[in-house]
Amino acid sequence: AAMLPALRRCRPGPVPLPALAAALGPGPFPGLCPGWSPRAVPARGRKTRHDPPAKSKAGRVKLPPPVDPEELLVVLERYRQHRLVLSALRAEFRAEVLQRKQEERLAEGSVEELEEHRRLMAWNEEENARQRARREERLRKEEEEQKRRKLEIAEERARKMEAFLEEKEKEVLQLQEEAKNFITPENLEARIEECLDNPRNYNFAIDKDGRIVKRTVLS
């Protein structure tokens, strides 16, 4: 019921305003005021931008609505596919329009332009063939150089392996030669007798030059 007067003032056309007509005095339209006039400001029961917030909403913090991560990934992927499809369609339509314009321009052109176009296309094909031959020659040389480098690396690796095997073979021969002096159960008694017959005294002192300066006497 409180909004009815405001709605009446908001309707188009003249509306009765008894209090305003009494204040303005007699006129051509007594008791009436044109709709949407400055004297009849629309009122919808809303606050202006300068009014403070309500007490019940003073401390309210607006939070964005929650977003489902899985749904967000699906939406982003679909949007990406949509953009790719649109970009491909635009490129296709643009190429088709340019080709059509070029064909129309060539069709409307003179014989000299057509001959010039054919000559340029022939020169382009020859240049492409020449560049293709140069590229194939360069790739062939690069392939041969790569094969040569691989062969050199394989030969160097074989030489290193051969030298390594020779060194190991020398070590094995040296160990076999040294193994002749090893103490075994078969020559244990003979080596013990040899040590007893030729005693050695390792209890001695040396100077900075490595000379023996003092030695104890074996008892």
TrEMBL record:
- Transmembrane parts of this sequence: none
What family does the database annotate?
Belongs to the mitochondrion-specific ribosomal protein mS26 family.
**What positions belong to coiled-coil segments?**
125-178
This protein's gene is called Mrps26
InterPro entries named in the record: Ribosomal_mS26
What is this protein's name? Small ribosomal subunit protein mS26
Alphabetically list the UniProt keywords: Coiled coil, Mitochondrion, Ribonucleoprotein, Ribosomal protein, Transit peptide
Predominant cellular place of this UniProt entry's protein: mitochondrion
**Where does it reside?**
Mitochondrion
